[in-house]
Amino acid sequence: MSETVPTSWLVYCRPGFESDALAELQHHAALQGIACESTHGEGWVSLTRVDGEAVNELHRQAAFKKLIFARQSLAALPALTLSRDDRLTAILEQVKASRWSFEEIWHETPDTNDGKALAGLIKALTRPLASMLKKRGALKRSAGGRRLHIFWTDGDQVQLAMSFPGNRSELVNGIRRLRFPSRAPSRSTLKLEEAWHEFIPREEWDLRLAPHMQAADLGAAPGGWTWQLVQRGMYVYAIDNGPMDTPLMKTGQIDHLKEDGFTWEPPQRLDWLVCDIVDKPVRVLAMVERWLVRKWCKEAIFNLKLPMKKRWDEVTRCLTALDETLAKAGVHANVSCRHLYHDREEVTVHVRIKD
After folding, report:
1. Per the database record, which ranges form the Ribosomal RNA large subunit methyltransferase M THUMP-like domain (predicted)?
2. Are residues 77 and 197 in the same domain?
């Protein structure tokens, strides 16, 4: 049997953002000079090399941490159509032909109602398939941390893919589900919490999200993001003409200033700037650039609200402009951007000044 190689780069994304995820993949393929054909469905997209060669190098060069719209990034084998009378044999045969070995198996689906409806079928197949793959030596205790992803798009449609340590999401379906804290003033609070999980290693939280730090929340009302800062023990300048949540204000950790977040200036350098203002991305970016160039904060997390079309183009323009502004000002910083699960028509940007 000839070896089957992964010729496709498969990523999961939020339904409705397939064209943006695909544009991002095509950008990285063009950088590598690799010709690909595209395929997509609701909540996922893929590129397949037209020369039939393995996609591993492209997948490795376009590291997951660099991607914005991808929830997960995988090197995938050709999609399979299964017999509804025997779904396991075709999967076992393709694993054998690939000569893959791995330490665990994740069954995943698109983030859609149709995907969720496959849960019963997947549960019934999970243990028998794992037992057979273990017996054949593909599922083993030590395999370099590799993980087999079985991506179900229908009851008889599946694609096998591989992920590698350090170049993948460690979350099933690439989704971080957080419990809404009942005392928080708004559901937007989850955006900032997820951003911290995404951009700050958990072991650094006590250092970088420490009590007694000072932060500014621009466009704070009613206080969803301010609530997260207060929970970390920070003192917060909440800048917004609107009213703040009354119980939150009673913590004594907030100075609510009814001023314009676009023009307000801090009294001294702060540890954090956060901003979830709904406005044109170019206007929000100009405001944040002013903070960063003048080093009014050490770290910043802010959202950029995107247009309905060509969101990848808009994000690229914004991030390029930010890089150019910081370089011109001689400000050295690490910049990251991600379309988070709790985001909707926006992306979240994190900047950490090195100086």
Report:
1. 86-163
2. no
pLDDT digits (tens, 9 = 90+) for 97-120: 999 999 999 999 999 999 999 999
Report the greatest alpha carbon distance in the chain.
Answer: 71
Q: How far is CA 156 from CA 80, 152, 354, in A?
A: 8, 8, 50
Range of the structural domain that residue 54 is part of: 8-174
pLDDT tens digits for range 135-153: 999 999 999 999 999 999 9
Q: Which active-site residues does the annotation give?
A: 305
Q: What is the DSSP letter of 112?
A: S
Annotation: binding site: 188, 221-224, 240, 260, 276
Instruction: Give the chain's domain count.
Output: 2
133/67 same-domain check = yes
Pair (13, 141) in one structural domain: yes
Structure tokens of 182?
């009942």
Output the six-digit token pair for 230: 């207060």
Report d(CA 90, CA 137) in Å as an integer: 17
Residue numbers belonging to the annotated binding site for S-adenosyl-L-methionine: 188, 221-224, 240, 260, 276
Query: Contact at 8 Å (CB) between 332 and 295?
Result: no
